[in-house]
Amino acid sequence: MDPINRGSEEYGHDDDGQAPRPRPPRDPLATDLGQHKPVVVRTVRLVAGEFLLTVNPVDGSEMENCPPHERPQPPVKHGAAERAERARAAQPPVPPGPAQPRLPLLERQEEREQLVRLLARGRSVRLTGPSGSGRTVLLDAVADDCADLAPDGVIRLSGYRRTASDLVYDLFAAVYEAPLHRPDREELRRLVHEIGAVVVLDDAEIGGSALDELLDATPECAFVIAATPDIPAPSAHALVEEVVLGGLDRSGGLELLERAVGRVLTEDESNWAGDLWFESEGLPLRFMQAGALLRQRDRLRAGEDAFDDYGVFQEAPADAPFEVGDGHETPLPSLAEGAAPAALLASRLSDSARATLRFAVALGGEVPHQAHLPALVGDTHADAALAELANSALVSPVGSRYRLAAGVQAQLEASGYADTLQESALAAAQHYTWWAGHPSVTPERVCAEADALLAALDVLVPVTTAPADEEDESVSVQLARTAAPAFAAGLNWSAWERGLRLGVEASELADDGGEQAYFHHELGILALCGHQLDRARAELEASVAMRAALADKRGTTAGRRALALVADRSGTLQLTAGRTPAGEEVPDARHDESMSPPGGVVAAYSRTDPSGDTVTVLAHPAGPGSPAAKRQGVAGRLVTGTRRNLVAAGAGALLVAVLGTVVTLGATSDHTNDTPSEKVGVNPSATQGSQDDSLGADKAKKGDDSTPGAVATPTDPGPDGTYGTSDDPTPPATATTGHRPSDEPSGTHTASGKPSKSATATPSKSSTGKPSSSPSKTPSGSPSPSGSKTPSGSPSASPSASTPTAPATSNSASGPVSSSAPASTSAGLPASSVPASTGVATSPSGAVI
Fold this sequence. Notes:
The chain is α/β, with parallel strands linked by helices. The protein folds into 5 domains: 76-244, Rossmann fold (3-Layer(aba) Sandwich); 250-339; 345-419, Arc Repressor Mutant, subunit A; 420-590, Serine Threonine Protein Phosphatase 5, Tetratricopeptide repeat, CATH 1.25.40.10; 604-609 and 636-766 and 775-849, no CATH class. 37% of the residues lie in helices and 8% in strands. It has 28 helices and 15 strands. A hairpin with a 6-residue loop joins β2 and β3.
């Protein structure tokens, strides 16, 4: 309903005769104070293997089988110009200000030639050296020498916090043009098999079997891998050469220090540099930082009086004493300050540079991009701070960004730069939340800052608490919620997974069920993309349960669709708590187990009692004394298991037995007060039929209803539930099984459904002509209701020993049955009126078992 135009007639209400409320006039000066247009949600559709993934930041990502018309074209390789452009874009940004001279590679010529020679032969090599030994500078020189060795050129990759699978995808993205396409493992392996390049992998963190996986996936590539000694070595069968990189000698360290300072060292500075070489084991990074210390000392010595003494365009002598403001000479740094110079170097930098270092310490060593520094620091010229840090050798390039150099993090934390760690991380998280959610920021730019965003989450998530105001939202939850869809759309799925797991933890601590359900849903989608069906099902079921409790219909629908896709991929229909994988209620799912009789369906068995008579027993297949009880094994348990088809068959058989009982009871009933034993014969004759060779009651000629033993064929049931006669009878089914002796009593009925008196006047005789003298007893041992005993003759044929036969139907409501019918029961009723599930057994002599 429009809040201004009431529209009450649409809902069946009148307006009480009142005029509609007039709209207030719009003030043109207050247009920005009104409600802004909603920000357009950035949904991205990409192909992940055989799935079509729609990244939806609102309700959760959706997946479906990729239609044929949505399949992307086969990826094509970049040209030489495109590879060069991408290589320049992969380099760290150049700090603003005047360009710094590139220092020469000292004392590395032997290692450089060895690496190039091995790569030219197609061999992979591992360059091992401690942090600060100059591995990155050496790799840059080797990459320049190998530019024309391979058809796909030189590919630079960063192994910092990257797994083998991540590196394979990075190699694919660097060589192939495939926008919004992430191939599955099989297609990826096929594509990277065709790459022939020299791969320069810096800051590798994989070794052993993980490195073997990378090398096996790229047989046509030659790798030069730079790693520290603590990284596991390649396996023995990897065929990777090992090159160890150590420190510089004394002369090389002094030469590097002079080139870093830009002048010749004094005697005191040379002695100080010698002590530093012994302390640092000749690591080039320490001499670069020592050169920065000497340059700062030179600037401090150039006081205000230096211009009066030497002029503006004349440099001061190297050995001239320089004074600080108080007139004291600036001494050389101590040996301890030279070995750990980060604190001293930072103290002589600008305020913006020191603030940048505080953010870097809070972000675990990640230096924010220079474009974010003005907003973070609060200074419009703070981007120049990156140049100060780079010239001081406090930061080093890692891939396309900068990090604190080796050892600088610990030195700054000891100097008090970690005192404002949470405040700096909170400010960075708030800025990155706004920036990552801005419509102008592409997912690729967010992925470039993934490590800084995740580092802020690492600091804030453990200290996340529920906000005091329900309308407020936790900063850590907001950052994870904003960055996760961008990571997914930018195809940085390792960062996507880390962001989602941090988001789950943060939302749980913040007591935000809606956001927690979103993160679980995304984790399920990510697992489904990786074909981890069990994990995907668990995450999606948790998300659907949470969203159903919150009445989030759209989110619940998205989760159920994903669950249906999981069920389709798994190939089985999983029922959980009476629900399908999509969450729909199954009404009878909780009652399936109670529909099957315990122990199985009742069956008939034949056995011999101690007196020598053959007895037909109705019992469960697994009951004691049954043949199936002896065969209870794996196959028996499989057969007697509860299944829907067995349940349906048992229910149908039970229904047929009940209907047969009802029809028979109705057919044998009478409105008189006489007992049934006076109306129904208990021992009719059992002679051979006139038209077949079976044993049954005597058959009469057609149309003769007065003949003893006449059998009537029923037609449609009458008003009282009985059947009439017809030439084309349709008898009701009976559920009788087992064998019956030839002289088994069989009740005879007329066309009206009443028992024939002629058939019950005289008990029949056996085939020998002699009446039987064996009386029949009821199951309880009491006499029959009529007070008479039921004689029976001896059987004319012995039944089968153990094999039960299939049930057969009678041609009348209580007429003769086939040889597979069971023996008659007590109370003078016909055999067909007793259901098979009563468990009553009779012997051929008429005794009830």
